[in-house]
Write a structure and sequence with these properties.
Length: 617
């Protein structure tokens, strides 16, 4: 039941706006019965081809140790590629999937806005006197939704399933009553009605496809939540509750439109219910859309954490909102940015009909990236023959490209908004990845080989020893880190016990506790610890100490932690190899505003010493 609330929240609330917006996309489409049947057939077969066939049957199989989503797909494809190759240049599918992930942030801005706004617009259906309060009420609901995120989704999650189950029963029952009075609409199950609609209207039908995609807008969330519920639970919830309710409601709206085309000018969804139930349905619709928005906001937090751990975003402050579930997190920066953007979108567009022009492009771009990458997964992981792997991927791409064409034409009407958000996020992704890689290479050049360190130590008779334990954090797992050598050359003092800690973020969801720590005695007085974490895990010094178990390293009595603090400069000698000026500025800005490593790892501030070092990028 939990999967109903979280996974299908967005798809489940699409009948509020998707059916009506298909007709608003093209004037005159509601005037003839064949147009109603054609658009309804397009919606039905979008649900079947995209959700049932593409995602439920095939894409859900492309999990990475049980985890799904765009970044999990990226990590899965990068896993067999040596880091030395990836460090030089990202493969083409990495750029596509990063762009797809960036598109989800654009979707994250539009989805809560259009979902809640379309639900509250039911007040306008109940009485025109409520029209002035629609936008303020929407802003208030969204504001409250983002304010409570800091408390976590644990308490809200307990009622997700029952509310969404009630929602699906209500939308199915409303559609069934209308369908009984107009069963002829079931002929829309024949895909020829969809084909004939496209043939009759030619290029103008492309615009309708841009609205049809709204009926499957939450399908990427279905894939992203794979790790929380598993493919079996998702498929069961989809086929047992969500799909039947959606089909009944869409057919019910179609039957109503055949009887009374005028309902499409206001709200064909609320017209399914008697007037005395309108306010109750508005309340239920609002609750359902809040749940849909909550699921997407939580997904944005999880995806941000994955991007940080995989090296595509700088460190951010992450708060755990549950002591039982590690996946329940809150990221203040992401929450604040989404809240401001959602409220600005509502104030700017002011109606779900206008907002529908901006919706669809982001989710279509993500679906397109998933289709492109699926061929690679099927070929490399499933060991399918090339013809089967890339042939199926091409079929998926054909559907996605049709939806993309329908949304491209809406760019000037508002689709530029999610596209712009995605472009900004994608730029941040590739800028941080490139800059981080350059910084790691620069630090590697500054580190000294072990034999050089030992030779210099023996040659310096003035070196004094301190009977203390010092920890040096470094990005490299070979040689003596720059910070250790720099501190020694500056003070001519060495600690009796030196521990070098390198944290490695694996391209896999999790690393078991017993496999997380690797020890190496690199010198009589120097121990190296390599701590490996998956992209779904957050490293901390307390966890590293805990994972070391009974090793007599003295990590509980460390006197000082040393780490480098890079200062980014441009090296003119790099010439064409240097980062572009604008990109270096962006990277430097991101680095300055990243959460300090002391806070991220939980290092004691009073015992942490940072050494400044110039890094040429």
């Amino acid at each position: 039941m939990a999967a109903l609330g979280v996974v299908f929240g967005d798809i489940g609330t699409s009948p509020l706006y998707a059916f009506r917006l298909c007709f608003l996309a093209g004037p005159g489409y509601a005037a003839r019965a064949e147009n109603v049947l054609g658009i309804l057939s397009l919606i039905v077969w979008a649900l079947i081809l995209v959700v049932c066939v593409k995602y439920a049957t095939f894409v859900l199989r492309a999990d990475y140790e049980g985890e799904g989503g765009t970044l999990a797909l990226l990590a899965l494809l990068l896993a067999p590629i040596p880091r030395s190759r990836v460090s030089k240049r990202l493969p083409w599918f990495a750029f596509m999937l990063l762009l797809g992930a960036a598109m989800l942030y654009g979707d994250g801005v539009i989805t809560p806005a259009i979902s809640v706004l379309s639900a509250v617009e039911g007040l306008d259906v109940a009485t025109r006197a409520m029209h002035p309060v629609v936008v303020p009420a929407t802003v208030a609901i969204l504001g409250a939704l983002f304010l409570v995120q800091v408390r976590g989704t644990g308490q809200i999650g307990r009622v997700f399933g029952p509310i969404m189950l009630l929602w699906f029963v209500a939308i199915g029952a409303g559609g069934l009553v209308s369908l009984v009075h107009g069963p002829h609409v079931l002929v829309a199950l024949d895909p020829r009605h969809a084909v004939n609609f496209i043939a009759r209207h030619g290029p103008s039908s492309i615009v309708v496809l841009g609205a049809v995609v709204l009926s499957v807008s939450g399908v990427e969330a279905l894939y992203a939540d794979l790790g929380h519920f598993g493919s079996s639970a998702i498929r069961l919830a989809w086929y047992a509750a969500c799909l039947p309710a959606l089909l009944l409601n869409y057919f019910g709206q179609g039957a109503l439109a055949l009887r009374d085309p005028h309902v499409l000018s206001s709200s064909s969804f609320y017209a399914l219910y008697p007037g005395w139930t309108t306010l109750a349905m508005v309340a239920l619709s609002t609750a359902a859309t809040v749940i849909a928005s909550q699921a997407l906001i939580s997904g944005a937090f999880s995806m941000t954490q994955e991007a940080v751990q995989l090296g595509y975003l700088p460190r951010m402050r992450v708060l755990h909102t549950s002591s039982l579930r590690a996946g329940q997190i809150f990221i203040p920066t992401v929450n604040a940015m989404l809240a401001c953007a959602c409220i600005a979108v509502v104030l700017g567009f002011r109606s779900s009909a206008r907002l529908g022009s901006a919706y669809g492009l982001a989710v279509t771009g993500t679906m397109l990236a998933t289709s492109l990458a699926f061929g690679q997964v099927a070929r490399l992981r499933f060991k399918w023959p090339p013809l089967a792997a890339y042939g199926l991927s091409a079929l998926f791409l054909g559907v996605d490209l049709a939806f993309l064409a329908g949304n491209i034409v809406k760019v000037m009407d508002g689709a530029w908004l999610p596209a712009s958000i995605a472009l900004v996020v994608f730029t941040l992704f590739v800028t941080w990845e490139s800059g981080r890689r350059r910084v790691a290479v620069a630090f590697a050049k500054l580190s000294a080989p072990l034999d050089v360190y030992e030779r210099e130590e023996r040659s310096r008779r003035a070196t004094r020893r301190m009977p203390e334990i010092a920890v040096f954090l470094t990005t490299g797992s070979e040689g003596m880190p720059f910070v250790l050598r720099h501190e020694w050359l500056s003070t001519h003092v060495l600690h009796d016990n030196i521990i070098i800690i390198t944290i490695v973020h694996e391209r896999r969801p999790t690393v078991r506790k017993e496999d997380r720590i690797v020890f190496e005695q690199v010198a009589p007085d120097v121990t190296r610890i390599v701590a490996r974490y998956g992209y779904m895990q957050l490293p901390s010094i307390d966890d590293i100490i805990d994972c070391c178990g009974g090793k007599p390293l003295g990590l509980h009595a460390v006197s000082a932690y040393y780490l480098p603090h890079p200062r980014l400069v441009r090296d003119l000698d790099l010439g064409r190899g240097a980062m572009p000026g604008w990109q270096r500025i962006v990277f430097a800005f991101m680095a300055r505003n990243a959460t300090p490593l002391t806070e991220s790892l939980g290092l004691p501030v009073e015992s942490t010493i940072e050494f400044g070092v110039k890094i040429s990028v």
